[in-house]
Amino acid sequence: MLLRNLRIFRSSGVISTLPITATKDYIHLRQFHTSKHLLKRSRDNKLSKKAQQEENRLIDKLLEDTDADDEIRPPSIDIREKKKQLALEKGLMKAKMTRELNEQVRENMGVIRGYDKLLKTDPLQRVKVNLDDTKDIQKFSDFFVHCGPLLRTFKNHLGSDLPTDFQRKIFTLSTGQLSTIAKGDSGSGRTMALIMMAMCLNRHRARGPGVSTLIIVKSNDLVLKYQQIITKVYQDLVNLMKTIPIPREQRLSFENIDEEETILKYKNINEMAQFLYRSDATTELKQQEIIAENPLPHILVSTPHRLLDLLSTRGMNFLKINNVQQILVDDFDTMIDPETYLDSDKTAPVVLLLDYVLKLQDYNRKHRDPHPMICFTVSSSCNNSLIEQIKEEKQWFDWKKFVPIGSFESPGSLPIHKSVPDNVSLGSVLVLPVIDETVSENVDNKKKTRKSKKKSKGKNNFKVELYDMTPFEYGSDMRTWIDKSYRTTEGHDAYYFKHRNKRLNAARKVKDIGFEILISGFIELHKRKELGLKQEKLLFVHPDSVNGTQVRDFLKKTKRKGKVFNFSDGDESFFVDDQNKNDFLIINSSALPSLTFNGLKTIVVLGNETIKNMSNFITIAGRIRNDKKGLISEDRFPELLDVSENGQRSLASSTTKNSNNSDSDKGRIFLINSLFEFDHYDRNYLERLFIRGGLVDQFSPCGVLEPGFDQDAYNSTFVPDYTFQYFNDGHEFQLDEE
């Protein structure tokens, strides 16, 4: 079949285009020369009228034959009809697309209606477990139903498959993809909860490629801790799946997701999780190489500084964090100002990072994906100012799907329960340096005698005397606690920090002498047999202004070995590792959050400067762990106040009772200060910490009270000022006239 265009020119000059299919039956090639030749012969050679009629007859016959042929469909000669035909075809195509779209909408109408209905319901109604029976849920499998082998691996790692109360709450919200700011006590399993949420989460294919979980932590040590735990669990899971036959219905799978979409699809740990932190050039280059080879890890753990570095230098195309399913921040309050939170002159790196990342998520959400689930864990000292500031200043959370965990008291109110475990006691030791008269100096020759040289070799030219700080009398009047904690003009944190900073600006030599006095005080304390410090491994916590190596060198005078904390050396297990022959573990206070020291019973804190704020005080006290699992029992945080239905607060019945902890379960903190520098403001700072921590238990390490302390002068310095009005959950605190 041959397709040609035959142009027909009649004598009237009308031109049309006719596509025909020429066949041997009725078309002869001679008869179908192009009309151009016919017209030329007609005009140039002036053919006779008879010849023109003959040609027209042949053309008419050809048209008749063409119309009669079923294989030939000549188009309309009228251009208007042709436009109508094109418009009709376009309308049919549009109608077809509309019909297909309507079919898709009709098929998914149940999902759309369910999602719309879900948005209008209370957030807690979206969870997939019965909230009334949450206390009775005993296993991880009640929350992560389709994670059998993975949960079995977690059970082997933790030694238990029972979640803590904090983990029950946060897992319950995660089943409904609800965002939260979770307030938890020390030792409640916050870090492990985030790890389980990240590893048990499975990315649905409808979300497309990207990082599923972004975990933000404060320090390099915490990144290494996450890397250690996640790598160990992943390797144990792989080994479990290889060695133990598991029925197919119990395999790691999720609803509506193929088995290939589970965590087992990752061929190695780098595909499953990646870890970013600042380090030397070689290590950072290795991190970038791993990301380049595996650009879409299931979990990404990073410090804010390192992630901001890569985003600013390599861009979003290098790190696929514009489609994250959940964002988890561990110890969020330790990364910002613990007192003013977001209302600070300097924007914290974690705030800058969240602003950038969540703007990307908001942009993507407008097109397809829902808002990511966001979870912040914070210490028990946080109040509701944090939530209010985030609501007013940031657009991080989808507040329709937000439920806080824990009681967020109003600023200026007492905590409902203790923040410091009731089995932890604190003894405050004051060190008084006294000139050592055994060191005599020859004034005439300006030389020391041989005897004095021998005695003074390796020793200070002073000795120290130790005293107990006068213990605080709490009483049982809640109004007194509030007065001392919040209602004095000079007795608040902002005033004290300003006072303490003046001391920190002293000359380096003066600060070195003051620090040497503290170390000398511990050396003297270490000699006392009744305290039993020689038989224990101790954790030394020093301020950020002091080098850990300097502390270690001073402690050599006790003839015991000390070690500066290094997570890479496995120092979290320092106190249960019999192979480690060191006696002291030295660490600065800023590195303590989220670290777990199993078997730790005694802590030595060098000066008030080490306790940076209330949150840091709770963190230090929460490092004492007698449980082999590294957890602290919920019973160690009893209620301090009872709250009635109308919001009124009163003392809990167990507040004034003495704890019945056994000696083996006790933990001790020795706080050492120099009596020369210890003034009323330092004392008031400690008293407010002790009250806000839940009336911290006190003990006397030395047995001798400090000399010359004037209680009346101290009380007169911090007189309550009732011009300040504080509120407790919206209820103004009223004073009794009596």
Key phrases:
nucleotide-binding, EC 3.6.4.13, hydrolase activity, Helicase_ATP-bd, ATP-binding, 738 residues, disordered C terminus, 8-stranded mixed β-sheet, Rossmann fold, disordered N terminus, 6-stranded parallel β-sheet, elongated, single chain, alpha/beta, 3 domains
Q: Topology, please?
A:
Layout: E1 2-9, E2 15-22, H1 35-44, H2 49-68, H3 79-107, H4 109-119, H5 148-158, H6 165-174, E3 180-183, H7 190-200, E4 213-216, H8 220-243, H9 269-272, E5 273-276, H10 281-293, E6 299-302, H11 304-313, E7 326-329, H12 349-365, E8 373-378, H13 385-393, E9 424-435, E10 441-442, E11 447-448, H14 450-456, E12 462-468, H15 478-486, H16 493-504, H17 508-526, E13 538-542, H18 548-555, E14 562-564, E15 584-588, E16 597-598, E17 602-606, H19 614-621, E18 624-625, E19 641-643, E20 649-651, E21 667-674, H20 680-692, E22 697-698, H21 711-717, E23 727-728, E24 731-732
Parallel strand pairs: 3-8, 4-6, 4-7, 5-6, 7-8, 9-21, 9-22, 13-15, 13-17, 14-15, 16-18, 17-21
Antiparallel strand pairs: 1-2, 9-12, 10-11, 19-20, 23-24
Helix pairs in contact: 5-8, 11-12, 15-20
